[in-house]
């Protein structure tokens, strides 16, 4: 590729866009409100503004195309269905709407898949043609990369690993099922589990670690705080994060058995967790996966952080 | 295809081989001992005998090739690794060994995948480009069909759905993990669960249904007996089989979420179960799967029965 590609990470609040070079480096960046509550036309307008902004910053250079990572189910590399937190949006051919205004190659893809593609091309997955990408953040999602390409399943929605149940009699998940791994380790559920553990703990442990960091305000507990307390040696923080990693490992073992994949790349907000969490995930996965898989199991930390969306989106049109 | 293709179902006891026409009909059949305990050379000799037998029965007709479904992990369409119940067999290039003696196209594939391919081409999956094939028998295995082709995963072993855990604290499975769906509904485990349920039941139910069919010999209880008792109206038999179907449905919901597949074809010995079992599987899957999938869920009975292996194997070389 000569010139650059444009990658866009479309979120419910913000459009993050960047021009990306052939090595996956971000050259220029722009940010706009996504106006998600104002309907599809407003969002499309903001996207076009962002794209034109970037093109304007590269006079005389060739833009190879525009990749857009979007929430919701995306089909045919273009149509976005029911993105959560976007108003008046059922089914919009986003690719087509952009192409009408900007005569470039436009590819639209689910945001989790985009991040997976970014890691596949320029991040932790670049030496692994097949891997499972996990987004561990507010929810637990993912993407499946086979032969360096996205595995879509029948309808474009493959990779919903957060809704693999690890206990058929477990807690109710917001999806309607029970015991989904997301209902143990998704940010909100994980924070709640930690609050419960603190409430149950002795008065002694209640004065330590996590509570000091939030000045006693239980509502401020979130994975970032738990991670910091663990790194400072708080035993309860370490225990709850190890347990969360273990639950994720149990889910991964089941998935890796079904898919015969051995490499897992973990991204999303919670993936900044300390190394002992990765050790717990790896140990639990190895303990539970079928014997022929055990030795090959590797649980890797994503490398592109919050740039994975932009870089992944751009890489689709390079 | 003019002429015929040869399909072989290689088992630990018997080699079942057949010539198959372009519509998936079996023309001629031969059966030989597999001599699995006598080592790879003996097995290969028996395979060659079976193939030559069939060729001899079709003088003047063209054989398009030989497909072989084998236990164990199969890689590269040729190499068979560690088939259970075969002595002195670690890694044998079975395809190559056959081709040296018989100058035809030879394709070797895992037996579960072969049965899946048979259903895809000529059975319950023929109108469904994407489906999950489940073998419910002694164990619980399967194959994943995407775009009418086998999905292999990284190392050729994808589809081990029996070792998806439905309860991380569940019973120990022979694979070393806990709560694998096989450890609830695989033939041996399922029979054992039924024996336990009978032992716990009141004296009244202990005199009914299942025990009558086995003349009181608990060791003779197996899924076929439980199915018959259920069909004759025995409430305990109906309850345990409904529970088994429900467990399978819970596992399927998790798998279908990850793969975004909506069609499941169930084969294997236990798949001859009465319709109420399929109803239980369908209800449990629909109850637990993500909302966008619910309406499309279909749980189908395999159509090729014990001929799926031969027909699937032959279809690979048509």
Q: Major β-sheet of chain A, in short? A: 5 strands, mixed
- Number of beta strands of chain A: 13
Poorly predicted regions of chain A are none
Q: What general form of chain A does the structure show?
A: globular
Percentage of residues in DSSP E strands of chain A: 15-25%
Largest interface, chains and sizes: A-B, 47 and 46 residues
Q: Give the termini distance of chain A in whole angstroms.
A: 6 Å
Q: In percent, how helical is the residue content of chain A? A: 25-40%
Structural class, judged by helices and strands of chain A?
alpha/beta
The average pLDDT score of chain A comes to 94
Q: Give the strand line-up of the largest sheet of chain A.
A: 3-2-1-4-8
Protein model, in words:
The structure is a homodimer of 318-residue chains. The longest helix of chain A is centred in the C-terminal third of the chain and has 25 residues, at 235-259. Chain A has 318 residues and is an alpha/beta fold. The first copy, chain A, has helices spanning 40-56, 94-101, 111-122, 182-185, 187-200, 203-206, 210-213, 223-231, 235-259, 275-288, 291-294, 308-315, and strands spanning 4-10, 14-20, 26-33, 63-70, 73-75, 79-81, 91-93, 106-110, 131-136, 140-146, 149-150, 263-267, 298-301. The mean pLDDT of chain A is 94. Helices cover 39% and strands 21% of the residues of chain A. In chain A, strands 3-2-1-4-8 form a 5-stranded mixed β-sheet. A 5-stranded mixed β-sheet of chain A has the order 11-10-9-12-13, with helices on both faces. Chain A contains 12 helices and 13 strands.
